[in-house]
Specification:
heterodimer, A: 476 residues, alpha/beta, Rossmann fold, 6-stranded parallel sheet, 47% helix, 10% strand, B: 257 residues, Glutathione S-transferase Yfyf (Class Pi), Chain A, domain 2, 4-stranded parallel sheet, globular, L-lactate dehydrogenase complex protein LldF (chain A), 4Fe-4S (chain A), iron (chain A), 4 iron, 4 sulfur cluster binding (chain A)
Chain lengths: 476, 257
C-alpha cells in the first residue's frame, strides 16, 4: 500500500492512459468538421438531449438551489479530501473490502492487473468507467493476457470497433446504426450473420453476447459515481442494467475511483441523485442505481477491492482556481450545449475527457504544456457554465489555464506590443491612423499573414472607416 | 445625466458609426455625453488569450480614466462583461487589492447600452424609425455574462417601421470568440456557417446585435457570400430617425466589399 499521493502533487505520467492527443486541437478538429455523418449525429443527439434535459430541469423549482448545494458539497470535499478518503478507507475496510492507493495510472493498472491475475481469471467484465478509460486499464490487462469486455452497449461498440470514445455519456455517439451492424458482424463472437441494422435487433445481439459473458466471468471491474465516506458505500448509476449484472454476479469486484468522487455523508446523495440524471440523460431518475458497502456474506461479490486513483488530481487540487474542475460528476451536460464540441466531436480533444470539461480537466491532469491547445478550444460563450449542475465556471477556468500555457513567441511579442501601444493614447491614435493608411490587409483582408489569415478563410475583413471615433469626436 | 462613453477599441477604430450613434441617441434623449480621451482598450483580448499580466496596465488605465464619472456606457456587452467580471480578477491576480476594489466600483457604474436605456433611463421607446426587416442575434457575453435578456428586443419592438423577425437558434454562439476566430479558424467558420444559415432563413435585410465584434464576424461571412444582408449595430438602429431617411446614416457597422 503506498500513500504517496498526499505528498507532492504530480501530474499524470506520460506513456500510459488516454489524456493526451497526438495532435493539437485545431488540426484534430478538421477531421470532425469534415465528417458529415459525425456532424449530423452530433447535431441531432445534442439538440435532442438539450431539449429533454431542459424540460426535466424546468420541472424543478429548486434547480438553482440544488446546483448551489452540489457545488458547495464538492467544495467542502476538496477542502478536506485527505480526511474524507481515510474515513472512506476505514469504512470500506470495516465492511470487508480492501482499499488500495494508486498514485498514478501505472500503479493503478498494476494493482488491478495483479488482483485479477490472483483470481486466476483471464477475463473481466467492465461497467462503463471514465477512470479506467483514463488510465488505459484495458490495454494494461490485455498486455497481461487478460481480456476486458465492456458491457455498456455504446462502450462495447467502441471496443469492438477498436475505436476511441467520443462522448462521456454516449461514447459511440459518432457511429450510426449501419456502422454498428458492420462492427458487430466483424467483431462480436457468435453473432448471427443475418443481423440487420434495426436498433432492437442490434440491441438484442449485444444482449445475447453479453448475457453469456456475464454468466461465465468471475471478475468485474467498475468505476464509481459516488463514494460515501461515512458508510463506505459506493454508488453506480446507469441506464442499461449491465452495471447491476457486473456489480452483483461475479465473485470478485474491483472498483477504480478517482479520489474526487468521495462525498461526506449518505444524505449528500440526495442532491447528486437529483442533479445527475436530469443534467446527463435528461431523465428525472436513472433506471438503475446500484449501491454496495464492502462485502455481504452470501450475497454478491465475496471479494471487493477499491482502488483510489490520484493520477494528477492532487496537482489539480493544489490550484485554488483550477480545483473546481474536480467538482465534475461526469454528466456531460457541458458537451451537449457546447457549440464547439457539437461540430468537432470528441476525438478532436485527444483525451478521454472531451468537450468543455475536458478542455479544463485534461490539461490540469497532464500539466498544461502537454495539452496546450485545449484551453483555446472554446469561444468562451458560457453555455457550459450555465448547464453545469455543479456550477463549474468553465470559461473562468479556460482563461486561467490560457495564462499558464507556453505562448508562441511571435504571439507573445505582438501581445506585448499591443499592450504597450494601448497604454499610450497618443501612440494608440497614431497606430489607428497607420493601420488605416497602410491597408496592409489588402482588399477584404486577403493579404493577411498567418495566423491572421485564418480570418479570411471564410470571412471578409471590414474596410477601415474614413475616420476613427476619436477623430470624429475631436472635430465635432 | 452626464454620461462617460466607453467607446471600446473596436468601435473606435473599425466601427465608429456604432459609437457615433450611441452619442447621438443619448444626446437625443436629453443627456450630456463626454468622451474621456485617455481610454484605449479594456484589455479583454489580452486576458482571454492568456496575457493577464499585459492586461494589468490596461485595467489600471481603464479604472483611472473612468473613476471620475458617475455613469459609464458602452455599446458592447462583451467589453462591459470584461470590466465587470475580469478587471477585479486581473487586479487580484496581480495582488493589487486596492485596484480590484476601485475596478469593482467602476464596474458597478458601467452599463451596456440596452441595460442603460431600459434599467437606468427606464425607456424602451427611444423615438427611432428604421423601416427594415431586422433579425437580432443575442451575443454570448450580453446574454450569459450580463444577462441583458430581452432588453434589446424590447427596444427594437418600439422602433417605428421596423419588422422584427425571430432568429432561429439565436442563443448559439456565432463562433467569433476573439482570437478563437484565428486560432481555431476552421471550427469558428463552421459555427459561423450555421449562424449565417439561420440569419438567411429569416429573410431579414439586417442582422443586428449589441457587439461590434460579433457583428464583424457575422458581417464578414455575409459579405464573403455576397448575401446582400447587412450587419448593423443596435445603437445605429436606435439612433435612426425619420429625418435620416431610409438609408441615411445607418449601416456603417456593415462589413462591405
Amino acid at each position: 500500500m503506498s500513500r504517496t499521493f498526499l505528498g507532492m502533487p504530480a501530474t499524470a505520467p506520460r506513456g500510459v492512459g488516454h489524456l493526451r492527443g497526438e495532435e493539437p486541437f485545431p488540426a484534430a478538429a478538421r477531421r470532425g468538421l469534415a465528417d458529415p455523418q459525425l456532424r449530423r449525429n452530433l447535431g441531432h443527439a445534442t439538440t435532442t438531449i438539450r431539449a429533454k434535459s431542459g424540460a426535466v430541469i424546468g420541472e424543478l423549482p429548486d434547480w438553482q438551489a440544488l446546483r448551489a448545494a452540489g457545488s458547495a458539497i464538492k467544495a467542502d470535499v476538496l477542502a478536506r479530501l485527505p480526511e474524507l478518503l481515510e474515513q472512506l478507507e476505514a469504512a470500506v475496510t470495516a465492511a470487508g473490502g480492501t482499499v488500495h492507493w494508486a498514485a498514478d495510472a501505472v500503479e493503478a493498472n498494476r494493482i488491478v492487473t495483479d488482483l485479477v491475475a490472483a483470481t486466476g481469471s483471464d477475463r473481466v467484465i467492465k461497467v462503463k468507467s471514465m477512470a479506467t478509460q483514463e488510465i488505459g486499464l484495458n490495454e494494461a490487462l490485455e498486455a497481461a493476457g487478460i481480456a476486458a469486455v465492456e458491457t455498456d452497449l455504446a462502450e462495447l461498440i467502441v471496443q469492438l470497433g477498436e475505436d476511441r470514445p467520443s462522448h462521456i455519456l454516449v461514447p459511440a455517439i459518432h457511429r450510426n446504426r449501419a456502422e454498428i451492424r458492420e462492427i458487430f458482424l466483424r467483431a462480436m463472437p457468435g453473432v448471427d450473420p443475418s443481423l440487420t441494422d434495426d436498433p432492437p435487433a442490434l440491441a438484442a445481439a449485444a444482449r445475447r453476447f453479453l448475457r453469456e459473458t456475464f454468466l461465465a466471468t468471475r471478475v468485474a471491474v467498475s468505476g464509481v459515481n459516488f463514494a460515501v465516506a461515512e458508510t463506505g458505500t459506493l454508488a453506480v448509476v446507469e441506464s442499461e442494467g449491465n452495471g447491476r449484472m457486473c456489480l452483483t454476479l461475479p465473485e470478485t469486484l474491483i472498483t477504480v475511483m478517482g479520489v474526487e468522487k468521495v462525498v461526506p455523508t449518505w444524505r449528500d446523495l440526495e442532491v447528486f441523485l437529483q442533479l445527475l440524471p436530469r443534467a446527463s440523460t435528461g431523465e428525472r431518475m436513472n433506471p438503475y442505481t446500484s449501491m454496495w458497502t464492502g462485502v455481504t456474506p452470501g450475497d454478491g461479490p465475496q471479494a471487493f477491492h477499491l482502488v483510489l486513483l490520484d493520477n494528477g488530481r492532487s496537482a489539480v487540487l493544489a490550484d485554488e482556481v483550477g480545483r473546481q474542475a474536480l467538482h465534475c460528476i461526469r454528466c456531460s451536460a457541458c458537451l451537449n450545449v457546447c457549440p464547439v464540441y457539437e461540430r468537432t466531436g470528441g476525438h478532436a480533444y485527444g483525451s478521454v475527457y472531451p468537450g468543455p470539461i475536458g478542455a479544463v480537466l485534461s490539461p490540469q491532469l497532464t500539466g498544461v504544456e502537454d495539452n496546450a491547445s485545449l484551453p483555446y478550444a472554446s469561444t468562451l460563450c458560457g453555455a457550459c457554465y450555465d448547464a453545469c449542475p455543479v456550477k463549474i465556471n468553465i470559461p473562468e477556468l479556460l482563461v486561467h489555464l490560457r495564462d499558464q500555457v507556453p505562448h508562441p513567441r511571435s504571439e507573445a511579442a505582438a501581445m506585448a506590443a499591443a499592450a504597450y501601444v494601448m497604454d499610450r493614447p497618443a501612440l494608440y491614435a497614431a497606430a489607428q491612423r497607420a493601420a488605416r493608411l497602410s491597408r496592409l490587409a489588402g482588399r477584404r483582408g486577403r493579404g493577411l499573414p498567418p495566423p491572421l489569415s485564418g480570418w479570411t478563410i471564410g470571412r471578409d475583413l471590414p474596410q477601415p472607416p474614413p475616420r476613427t471615433f476619436r477623430e470624429w469626436w475631436a472635430q465635432r | 445625466m452626464r454620461i462617460a462613453l466607453f467607446v471600446t477599441c473596436l468601435a473606435d477604430t473599425l466601427f465608429p458609426a456604432a459609437a457615433e450613434a450611441t452619442v447621438r441617441l443619448l444626446e437625443r434623449l436629453g443627456h450630456q455625453v463626454v468622451f474621456p480621451p485617455e481610454q484605449t482598450c479594456c484589455g479583454q483580448m489580452h486576458v482571454n488569450t492568456g496575457y493577464s499580466a499585459q492586461a494589468l496596465p490596461l485595467v489600471r488605465r481603464h479604472v483611472r480614466t473612468f473613476e471620475p464619472y458617475d455613469v459609464v456606457v458602452a455599446p458592447s456587452g462583451s467589453c462591459v462583461g470584461s470590466v465587470r467580471h475580469q478587471h477585479p480578477a486581473v487586479a487580484r491576480g496581480a495582488g493589487d487589492e486596492r485596484l480590484a476594489e476601485r475596478a469593482e466600483a467602476v464596474a458597478g457604474r458601467t452599463y451596456e447600452l440596452s441595460e442603460f436605456l431600459v434599467d437606468v433611463l427606464g425607456v424602451t421607446d427611444v423615438g427611432a424609425y428604421y423601416p427594415h426587416r431586422v433579425t437580432y442575434h443575442p451575443t454570448c457575453h450580453s446574454l450569459r455574462m450580463l444577462r441583458v435578456a430581452d432588453r434589446p428586443l424590447r427596444l427594437l419592438r418600439e422602433v417605428r417601421g421596423l419588422d422584427l423577425v425571430e432568429l432561429p437558434q439565436a442563443e448559439q454562439c456565432c463562433g467569433f470568440g476573439g482570437t478563437f476566430a484565428v486560432k481555431n479558424a476552421d471550427t469558428s467558420t463552421a459555427m459561423l456557417a450555421d449562424k449565417l444559415r439561420h440569419v438567411l432563413s429569416t429573410g431579414a435585410d439586417v442582422c443586428t446585435a449589441g457587439d461590434a465584434s460579433c457583428l464583424m464576424h457575422i458581417g464578414g461571412g455575409l459579405s464573403r457570400l455576397r448575401t446582400g444582408v447587412r450587419t448593423v449595430h443596435l445603437a445605429e438602429i436606435l439612433a435612426a430617425t425619420e429625418r435620416d431617411g431610409t438609408t441615411g446614416r445607418t449601416g456603417r457597422t456593415a462589413v462591405r466589399a
